[in-house]
Amino acid sequence: MSPRFRCTLAVAGALALAATGAATPALAAQPHAESPGATQADPLRVATFNLSLNRNAPGQLVTDLSTGTNAQARTVAEIIQRADPDVVLLNEFDYVEGGLAADLFRDNYLEVGQNGAPAVDYPYVFVAPSNTGIPSGFDLNNDGTVGGGDDAFGFGVFEGQYGMLVLSKHPIVTDDVRTFQHFLWKDMPGALLPDDPATAAPADWYSPDELAVMRLSSKSHWDIPVQVGRQTVHLLASHPTPPTFDGAEDRNGRRNHDEIRFWADYVTPGQGRYIYDDAGVRGGLNPSQAFVIAGDQNADPLDGDSVDAAIDQLLGNKRIVDPRPTSDGAVEAAALQGGANATHRGDPAFDTADFADTAPGNLRADYVLPSRKLQVVDAGVFWPVSSDPLSALTGTFPFPSSDHRLVWVDVELPRAGR
Predict the structure, then answer these.
(1) GO molecular-function annotation terms (predicted)?
(2) Domain limits at 207?
(3) Residues forming a β-bridge with 295
(4) CA dist., res. 138 & res. 152, Å (int)
(5) Of 34, 155, 191, 212, which shows the fewest CB atoms inside 10 Å?
(6) Which domain CATH number covers 351?
(7) Which helix (H) or strand (E) holds 238?
């Protein structure tokens, strides 16, 4: 645990005891206030947090964030304030055109100290559309009807539900951002397209007409260059579909695998030639660039329902470092809950999500994976043990914040010119 984080937690604990989220998409990546961008004498802290700030109807998130009184929003904001990342990807933050929800979250929650935690300012924000809730016009789940969340390009009952948001203390190089919302699944060589088990033909769950429009990303994939002093770090952000909620065809499990594979190919020289972004530009990331892959990948290395080795495509990549962040709270939770956790092969210290104990149990689902150009200094998962006053922020089901935990990694950037 870094000194900065340890100090923040210590102060927080004392205070608590004393008180006993085809066409070029619409983008928003603008300063919240006039700011030259932070300098970076300390390591760069990058985090991902599926904060479950999604809502059940369009406009509901804006309503909930319009005042500073929403209990869940205050809790997830406090977690972010306690961790104090320099750059953070928020999953399950409903997309609202123009970034209104992001502005409200910053104004009314992050820039207001929560429960004694210091306020945090993120002058730069990036939001873009998500495939969730966008009607495909096809019966993608083959249930005989067209419509609803399961027949959208990404599961959602309205457009933008379960979207993504990036907040940064450092300038985002807006002109160089790449989004891959419209990349077609069929255009990935060797894609694990799902097969209809009722027929003899291979990979035929989707019809040719459906494959002609079926997008790979259940939300989107974003390459967001962040300017840190004189250097640039590419935040590669995504949120692959859960590998469940399907049948024997495993359409979601296979899609999860290929959504993860996208980044593995993107950062591997020679492997990303087939990739094209929403502006039509082809190719993967320049090998000279430093990057951090972040997001709720919905895949555990050993347990859960994901396709075997799905996350190993990243964890085993020679250009990627796995900092293996841990928490004592995850170990305690697995022991207390038992159930499916008792049969897991993976070390519970690495868990980042508190799921149903009957199945699949707690899993490592959320990742911050730097490139080898960045030196890992520290890493952790915000999951306090029950004796820590801050455990009230994570809690037990029904959770006051989210069933996922914030994951952070501190990295040092290479010196300019090295």
Answers:
(1) endonuclease activity
(2) 3-412
(3) 367
(4) 8
(5) 34
(6) 3.60.10.10
(7) strand 231-238
